[in-house]
Amino acid sequence: MKAFASFALCCALIAPANAAAIAQLKAFVAGTKTLSASFSQTVSSKNGQEKASGQMEIQRPGKLRWTYTQPYEQLIVGDGKTLWVYDKELAQITKRNQAGTLGSSPAALLAGSNAIERDYLLREVGRQGAVEWLAATPRKGDNTFDGIKMGFSANQLVEMELTDSFGNVTRISFSNIRKNPPLTASHFSFTPPKGVDVVSE
């Protein structure tokens, strides 16, 4: 199962560090213009588990860069209009319309506008250790994900849990989080390498 199938992800009003999850989400969204973090991802399905890790950067609105380094190399770049998925192992690039691909997915929440309460019903689901959790249920039935949980600590998104329509569960943990680092526009542009097939969808 390739990481893009479950690729996802969210994105500071200053809320108290120990505030409930919805207040922390709103603070995070309001104050985050750029974000970088390392991530580790586990996808659980009826076929077992697949682990992946890498680095992600976003620049709101609309720009994102996900680099998977383990167990295979894959680069996902969104420049606001086009989403490029470069699978180095297959030497293949997929080109998609970014808005149509991301829709109201968690990735769109991270890199998009402050529209989470328009697209999702939010509810608190409690505290686990130092992390406050909320559940986000899509208002539209055509969303890729049936259920989304987000965990916050000190007004930072530190964990996500995504359940898709097939029952697969993706858990993503973020570390080395940097809020509003300087990121250049060229960081979110992509030029296909020579000799690599490009498939448009």
From TrEMBL:
CDD domains hit by this protein: LolA (cd16325)
InterPro entries with a match to the protein in the record: LolA/LolB/LppX (IPR029046), OM_lipoprot_carrier_LolA-like (IPR004564), OM_lipoprot_carrier_LolA_Pbac (IPR018323)
Signal peptide positions (record): 1-19
Transmembrane intervals: none
Major location category of this protein: periplasm
Record's function text: Participates in the translocation of lipoproteins from the inner membrane to the outer membrane. Only forms a complex with a lipoprotein if the residue after the N-terminal Cys is not an aspartate (The Asp acts as a targeting signal to indicate that the lipoprotein should stay in the inner membrane).
PANTHER family (alphabetical): OUTER-MEMBRANE LIPOPROTEIN CARRIER PROTEIN
NCBIfam families in UniProt: lolA
Family designation: Belongs to the LolA family.
HAMAP family, per the entry: LolA
Name of this chain's protein: Outer-membrane lipoprotein carrier protein
Organism: Vogesella amnigena
